[in-house]
Task: inverse folding
């Protein structure tokens, strides 16, 4: 059974009097431990799909299931608790809380768990070490570079050991060097820690790092391409 | 509370704005405590009065005088033990209007006999009684002006013009705060002499044998002078004080109305600051919800933030009111002896702060809790 199951999903938005159909019966499976890149032009539904998987949005009809849980049927309260346990989300513009240090930002998801203060400290330390920012915990976001901010956001996404890590154009605001660092980190998380990763990107080089690329156009899956051996460096 | 650092971090986001909001709450609660204390002090003082003391004043009003010769007629009535009389004497000491204190011309022996609440050493009392130009002053004003026994002081008359020089022969301390420790008493005889033996009294204090006969004696006094040029209105001392309080009550009503308006205006400012603060963080709230923070947790965090501001303001505002007035020995320029911010006023202040927290925090907290994540993220992404 796939870890992420998108079954016959319809999604439409109402804009003024006009109805916009984003998905008309989309069906996709993503396996546990996969590293999937979602590509496609603007308006193809990449981010909407990510939001559906994260339970941030609901399909008009159809089923979204993650690790056996029917996300599309959950109440807002259930979704919040479910997201805290199962989803790590990384945004294009980092979205770190500016009033908190890197350490405190990474600790945020752990505040929603029953972990003790000592256990939280240990988990945050490990997450920051994994992203190579072990010595930057007491820095505020404004004191970090763009790449460091995004790595902090990734540490925040992995710290609670979620089922799936979702990234919405994580390299969109980074320079080439920082982009490579972030992508290398994602590959490492996938390979070494067997994390299931879904990344939305416009960047073909970024998509090359994934094991699987799904190409969407106007809400339809038009291409599904596995990385050739060795491409996912 | 593991979320506490989130609350404090947000309060530190705009330190100046947070400080000003706290100060505005503090000011609102300081005003509330002050105005309510005016009302409670007036009420407390209106309860002052011996059960066996009546006060007879001009039926037309307290500012109208009575002939001092009424004293003998009242004294002759059945059930009356003794009679004393007094006159309000305006006058000022020094140039500062804030240095005002009440001054009364009294018939010393009968007056002090009727008011055991005025406590002073026996030798000072005798010295005061002996000397026509002697003055008896409260410890509060003696301390304020650095007056000592045997010192001469000059009062500039306002209602009764001229320089009036007195020698302080006694300093009293009241056993009942309603008497006030900021009053000056002097001999009515001296007052009368300076006025060319006008023979006037502001009011009479009548001590009766039996508290139960107060109404009957009061009626008898009023009947006695019903057809004279200056009819009297007699009641218990409590009623007399209550009459004063009612007169000042209109002022306190006005002050209360102004105070309420100020508190309400400050409430709006606080609510506005809280809403601005919350709306600035729309994106951050959306991020927190994406991470898994529930609507309830987000609601609580925003409300606690408002609560911290309200509580800090309350502690400062109520604390200053509680500490400041005793420090400056405030007695409402003589009109509010025993002025005190009571524990009940403090409790009401805290309840007001709680209301302030709910009023200013509820709307932004609900907005944050109901914030749709996707729309909010679109605005920041």
Result:
């Amino acid at each position: 059974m796939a870890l992420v199951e998108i079954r016959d999903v319809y999604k439409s938005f109402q804009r003024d009097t006009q109805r916009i159909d984003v998905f008309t019966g989309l069906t996709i499976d993503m396996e546990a431990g996969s590293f999937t890149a979602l590509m496609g032009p603007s308006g193809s539904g990449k981010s909407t799909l990510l939001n559906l998987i994260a339970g941030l949005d609901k399909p008009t009809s159809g089923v979204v299931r993650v690790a056996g849980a029917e996300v599309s049927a959950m109440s807002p309260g259930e979704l919040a608790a479910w997201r805290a346990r199962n989803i790590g989300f990384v945004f294009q513009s980092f979205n770190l809380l500016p009033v908190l240090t890197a350490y405190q930002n990474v600790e945020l998801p752990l505040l929603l768990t029953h972990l003790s203060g000592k256990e939280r400290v240990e988990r945050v330390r490990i997450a920051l070490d994994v992203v190579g920012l072990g010595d930057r915990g007491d820095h505020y976001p404004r004191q970090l570079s763009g790449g460091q901010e995004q790595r902090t956001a990734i540490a925040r996404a992995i710290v609670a050991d979620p089922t799936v890590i979702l990234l919405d154009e994580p390299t969109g605001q980074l320079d080439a060097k920082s982009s490579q660092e972030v992508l290398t980190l994602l590959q490492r998380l996938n390979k070494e820690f067997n994390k299931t990763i879904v990344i939305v990107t416009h960047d073909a080089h970024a998509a090359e790092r994934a094991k699987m690329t799904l190409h969407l156009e106007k809400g339809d899956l038009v291409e599904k391409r596995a990385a050739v051996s060795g491409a996912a460096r | 509370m593991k979320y506490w650092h989130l609350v404090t971090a947000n309060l530190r986001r705009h330190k100046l704005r947070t400080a000003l909001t706290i100060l505005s709450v503090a000011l609102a609660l300081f005003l509330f405590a002050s105005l309510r204390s005016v009302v409670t002090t007036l009420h407390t003082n209106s309860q002052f009065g011996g059960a066996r003391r009546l006060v007879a004043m001009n039926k037309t009003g307290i500012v109208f005088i009575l002939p001092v010769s009424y004293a003998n007629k009242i004294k002759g009535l059945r059930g009356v033990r003794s009679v004393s009389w007094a006159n309000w004497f305006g006058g000022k000491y020094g140039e500062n209007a804030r240095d005002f204190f009440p001054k009364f011309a009294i018939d010393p022996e009968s007056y002090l006999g009727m008011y055991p609440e005025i406590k002073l050493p026996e030798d000072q009392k005798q010295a005061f009684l002996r000397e026509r130009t002697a003055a008896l002053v409260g410890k509060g004003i003696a301390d304020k002006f650095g007056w000592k026994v045997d010192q001469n002081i000059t009062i500039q008359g306002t209602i009764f013009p001229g320089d009036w020089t007195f020698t302080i022969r006694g300093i009293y301390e009241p056993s009942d705060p309603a008497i006030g420790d900021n009053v000056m008493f002097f001999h009515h005889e001296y007052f009368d002499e300076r006025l060319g033996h006008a023979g006037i009294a502001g009011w009479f204090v009548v001590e009766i044998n039996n508290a139960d006969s107060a109404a009957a004696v009061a009626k008898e006094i009023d009947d006695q002078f019903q057809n004279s040029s200056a009819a009297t209105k007699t009641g218990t001392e409590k009623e007399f004080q209550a009459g004063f309080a009612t007169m000042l009550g209109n002022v306190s009503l006005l002050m209360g109305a102004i105070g309420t308006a100020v508190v309400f205006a400050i409430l709006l400012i606080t609510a506005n600051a809280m809403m601005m603060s919350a709306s600035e963080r729309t994106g951050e709230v959306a991020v927190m919800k994406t991470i898994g923070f529930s609507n309830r947790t987000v609601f609580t965090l925003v409300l606690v933030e408002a609560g911290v501001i309200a509580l800090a303001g309350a502690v400062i505002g109520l604390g200053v009111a509680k500490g400041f007035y005793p420090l400056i020995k405030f007695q409402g320029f003589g009109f509010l002896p025993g002025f005190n911010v009571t524990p009940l006023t403090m409790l009401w202040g805290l309840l007001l702060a709680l209301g302030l927290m709910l009023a200013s925090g509820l709307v932004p907290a609900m907005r944050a809790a109901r914030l749709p994540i996707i729309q909010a993220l679109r605005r920041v992404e």
The interface with chain A takes residues 2-3, 5-6, 9-10, 12-13, 283-284, 287-297, 373-374, 377, 380-381 of chain B (CB under 8 Å). The longest strand of chain B covers residues 162-174.
